[in-house]
Write a structure and sequence with these properties.
The structure is a single chain. By secondary structure, this protein is an alpha+beta fold. The chain has one domain: Glutamine Phosphoribosylpyrophosphate, subunit 1, domain 1 (4-Layer Sandwich), CATH 3.60.20. About 40% of the residues lie in helices and about 30% in strands. It is built from six helices and twelve strands. It has a five-stranded antiparallel beta sheet with strand order 10-1-2-11-12. A five-stranded antiparallel beta sheet has the order 5-6-7-8-9, with helices on one face. Helix 1 packs antiparallel against helix 2 and helix 3 packs antiparallel against helix 4. The longest helix is centred in the middle third of the chain and has 25 residues. The N and C termini lie far apart (about 60 Å).
């Protein structure tokens, strides 16, 4: 399984992708994001699903970028071009994959900014090739294991959150997922983009790099539970007379 998250905030984009891949009984580490960048053109692609479908779609898209990159002046045009390649892979591989019991489940997050975009953009691309754009009301997308980190994201992340705080929230969402899903794990790759900079930055964290953060958060959660107001609990804990009808 996979954990990939990208957050669109006022200051820019912040993304986190785990690197754990399970192939049969073997676990390996591999990058789950790709960057395409030149002057006035910065975008990244994060993926979850079958690795073979992902690699094939990216290979096809790289050829498109090499020949048609100048035509992409807004990010949605590049997203449409990538969607075409996803459909192409589906037309070639979906039927034989499903015959083997494997679903065609390639989901993608695409973020960045091209020269005619007024601001940075973030899209979620489905296996069918259709896409949706992130809104300020829910300024993030998660693909792969999405359930465990979502409560924290919904409570804490806002469009006006600063870059540093967004990264903290994303790391804690990953930590919650890592705790619950055995096939999501370190290292994690962080991708960030400052609005109008046309430059994407990356960094990889190992488990030992963020272990103090995870320990601090766990201790703080336990302490917060101890400090939670408890007057309301007395309503449930008070002994009460039960109306019992005696047997005749």
């Amino acid at each position: 399984m996979t954990f990939c998250i990208a957050m669109k905030i006022e200051a820019g984009l912040v993304g986190i992708a785990d690197t754990a891949i399970t192939t049969g009984f073997e676990k390996i580490t591999a990058k789950k994001y790709s960057i395409f960048e030149r002057d006035g053109h910065s975008m990244f692609v994060m993926t979850s699903g079958l690795r073979s479908a992902r690699d094939k779609a990216l290979t096809y898209f790289e050829e498109v970028i090499e020949s048609e990159d100048e035509e992409f002046d807004k990010l949605y045009k590049a997203v449409n071009a990538f969607a075409t390649q996803v459909r192409r892979v589906a037309s070639e591989d979906k039927a034989p994959l499903e015959e083997s019991g494997l679903p065609f489940n390639l989901n993608c997050i695409i973020g960045g900014q091209l020269e005619k975009d007024k601001e940075h953009k973030l899209y979620l691309l489905y296996p069918q090739g259709n896409w949706v754009e992130v809104s300020q009301g829910t300024p993030y997308y998660v693909i792969g294991e999405s359930a465990y980190g979502k409560p924290l994201l919904d409570r804490a992340l806002r469009f006006d959150t600063d870059m540093s705080t967004a990264l903290k929230i994303g790391v804690l969402a990953f930590d919650a997922t890592r705790k619950a899903a055995t096939d999501v794990g370190y290292p994690i790759d962080v991708v960030w983009y400052l609005k109008d900079s046309f430059k994407i930055h990356t960094h990889r964290y190992k488990g030992e790099d963020l272990r103090p953060v995870a320990q601090w958060w766990q201790e703080r959660l336990r302490k917060s539970i101890d400090e939670l107001p408890s007057d309301w609990i007395e309503l449930a804990m008070q002994p009460r007379k039960q109306n019992v009808t005696p047997l005749k």
